[in-house]
Specification:
The protein has 76 residues and is α+β, with helices and mostly antiparallel strands. It is built from 2 helices and 3 strands, in the order ββααβ. Bound molecules: iron/sulfur cluster. Iron/sulfur cluster binds next to helix 1.
């Protein structure tokens, strides 16, 4: 069965998470734990830090499970 992408948005950005390719290395949760939370639902809190810091962390995801887009510029 194909896993569904999880979608999180604030007013400026949308972050998607694809659990089927996540390597569970926990880089996101270790490096920006107040945004990428391990035991709270919804697990990504896009209000917890600046968009710049969140985007930087998304780009550090080694598997590509985390992606982002800018709400105004792209069809998310
Ligand atoms: S950084 Fe990417 S691969 Fe690592 S746990 Fe987070 S989503 Fe999964």
């Amino acid at each position: 069965m194909k896993a569904k992408h999880h979608v999180f948005s604030n007013k400026d950005i949308t972050v998607t998470y694809n659990p089927s390719i996540c390597t569970n290395a926990e880089r996101c949760a270790l490096e920006l734990s107040h945004v990428f939370r391990q035991s709270v639902i919804p697990w990504i809190d896009l209000e917890a830090d600046s968009n710049e810091n969140i985007i930087t962390q998304v780009k550090r995801c080694p598997s590509g499970a985390l992606q982002f887009c800018l709400n105004k510029k792209e069809a998310c």
